[in-house]
């Protein structure tokens, strides 16, 4: 039987209380504290064993392209209103810092968390909450535009292996889109064409800070890679250039899109849900919604996780620095 698109784990109340106690026992003021980050994997060893086993199965077997842990201790009432200001300019309640510590501990079961200097002020945890100035953009901080399904940061060789989305609140039940490639729907010719390194992957506008900042460049590569019988995927329909001189490439990409879209699911995250996406196998997006900016609407915390921190060593200040300068 085929594994589910989203593997599910629901914490018992005992497990949730244990995780809450663990977070409270950590004397840490911010997840961006380097001392915390170098010990996060050690503390993650104190998470409930069944939860760690679930995440390890997800990581090691690649059975499902996504998984959800439900019932995490996220005290959305105490965390205050959904922020309309992002980045370092915002002070956080102790309950919010604890939720972020929990996010990093669970993420550490899959790899190392990291951030981008040009995204969300270089923070390791991004607040995906609607901002008025982004209302009509396809950014995570937008609202009126739906976000087309995509591989996260497809343009960058050091992109996340996993993306974590911890839901603080989602009262309007705005759906997150999740999809994966059904490789059996692609012909051998299409598979070969999509595995050619002739595609140009471009950064999205979330990396644009100001005219004075260097905007990261595009990267060339293939859409499919890894095992040809069960390939990994790199694709963002809005930020890719197809080669002009390759016959049949547009048809191959159209077939790829169909082979993903037939299996799209729409999942409404609830408070305390932590969704992990395998960024090599799953694509994700988000439906549009009407933002009101009164502090009660959708608020999701995003975490980037890498299986191999060394891959970006040349783009970080030191071995323990988790922020990539692009
Ligand atoms: Fe995304």
Summarize the SSE layout with pairings.
Elements: E1 6-10, H1 13-25, H2 34-44, H3 49-61, E2 66-70, H4 76-79, H5 94-107, E3 112-116, E4 125-128, E5 147-150, E6 162-169, E7 175-180, H6 188-194, E8 199-201, E9 219-221, E10 224-225, E11 232-233, E12 240-241, H7 249-261, E13 265-268, E14 274-278, E15 282-286, E16 299-306, E17 323-324
Parallel strand pairs: 1-2, 3-17
Antiparallel strand pairs: 2-14, 3-16, 4-16, 5-15, 6-14, 6-16, 7-13, 7-15, 8-9, 8-12, 10-11
The structure holds fe (ii) ion.
Can you walk me through this structure?
Helices cover 23% and strands 22% of the residues. The chain is of the alpha+beta class and 326 residues long. The protein has a domain at 6-172 and 267-324: 4-Layer Sandwich (Double-stranded beta-helix). The strands form four sheets. Strands 1, 2, 3, 4, 6, 14, 16 and 17 form an eight-stranded mixed beta sheet that branches. The protein has a four-stranded antiparallel beta sheet with strand order 5-15-7-13, covered by helices on one side. Strands 9-8-12 form a three-stranded antiparallel beta sheet, with no helix packed on it. Helix 1 (13-25) crosses helix 5 and helix 6 packs across helix 7. The longest helix is centred in the first third of the chain and has 14 residues, at 94-107. The N and C termini lie far apart (42 Å). The mean pLDDT is 94.
């Amino acid at each position: 039987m085929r594994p589910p698109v989203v593997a599910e784990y629901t914490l018992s109340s005992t497990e949730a209380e244990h995780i809450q106690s663990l977070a409270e026992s950590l004397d840490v003021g911010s997840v961006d504290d380097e001392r915390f980050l170098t010990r996060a994997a050690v503390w993650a060893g104190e998470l409930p064993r069944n939860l760690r086993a679930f995440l390890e199965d997800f990581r090691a077997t690649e059975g499902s392209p996504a998984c959800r842990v439900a019932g995490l201790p996220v005290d959305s009432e105490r965390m205050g209103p959904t922020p309309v200001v992002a980045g370092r300019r915002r002070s956080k309640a102790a309950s919010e810092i604890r939720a972020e510590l929990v996010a990093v501990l669970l993420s550490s079961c899959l790899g190392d968390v990291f951030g981008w200097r040009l995204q969300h002020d270089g923070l390791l945890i991004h607040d995906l909450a609607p901002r008025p100035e982004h209302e009509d953009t396809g950014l995570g901080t937008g609202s009126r535009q739906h976000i087309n399904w995509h591989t996260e940061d497809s343009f960058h060789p050091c992109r996340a292996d996993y993306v974590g989305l911890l839901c603080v609140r989602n009262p309007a039940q705005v759906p997150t889109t999740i999809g994966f490639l059904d490789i059996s729907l692609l012909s051998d010719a299409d598979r070969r064409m999509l595995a050619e390194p002739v595609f140009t992957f471009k950064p999205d506008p979330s990396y644009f800070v100001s005219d004075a900042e260097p905007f990261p460049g595009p990267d060339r590569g293939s859409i499919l890679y890894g095992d040809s019988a069960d390939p990994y995927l790199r694709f963002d329909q809005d930020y890719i250039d197809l080669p002009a001189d390759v016959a049949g490439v547009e048809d191959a990409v159209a077939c790829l899109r169909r082979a993903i879209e037939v299996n799209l699911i729409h999942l409404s995250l609830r408070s305390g849900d932590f969704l992990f996406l395998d960024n090599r196998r799953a694509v994700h997006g988000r439906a549009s919604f009407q933002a009101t900016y009164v502090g009660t609407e959708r608020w999701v915390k995003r975490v980037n996780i890498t299986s191999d921190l060394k891959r970006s060593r040349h783009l970080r200040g030191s071995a323990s620095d988790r922020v990539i300068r692009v």
